[in-house]
Specification:
about 55% helix; 2 domains; four-stranded antiparallel β-sheet; Nuclear Transport Factor 2, Chain: A
Amino acid sequence: MKLVGILAIAAVAIVVASPASAQQDTTHGKMVSAVAKTQGKGKAKKENLKAEAKISRDSAKTVALSKVAAGSKVKSVELEREKGTVVYSFDIKVPGQTGVEEILVSAIDGSVVSQTHETPKQEKAEAKKEKQEKAKPKS
């Protein structure tokens, strides 16, 4: 009889303890998910921009290069949201010029959103600003 009583108490203890440990696992799982979401935000943001883009990077590159002199070379390209739309931002080195031409091509319809010349000084300032923004902790 004592053995049955002890077994019954043990069974109750197991049943009572189970929801508590399951609750801890659930909380831990939620915490892990929250951390994973914050760590992957940059990648998710890029994926969202790619999903919004209607033209390819190569098509945008052709448009951008058509706006500068022959022999120009793409120095960098980035898919980003600027001027209220998703754009491919090209920095293009033009022969015989210092600095770069920055040409924003709409990733939606392939139109040129803007074209500006950046001096070497402006390029350095922009690179410094971008580096600082990337170093900022996201909240």
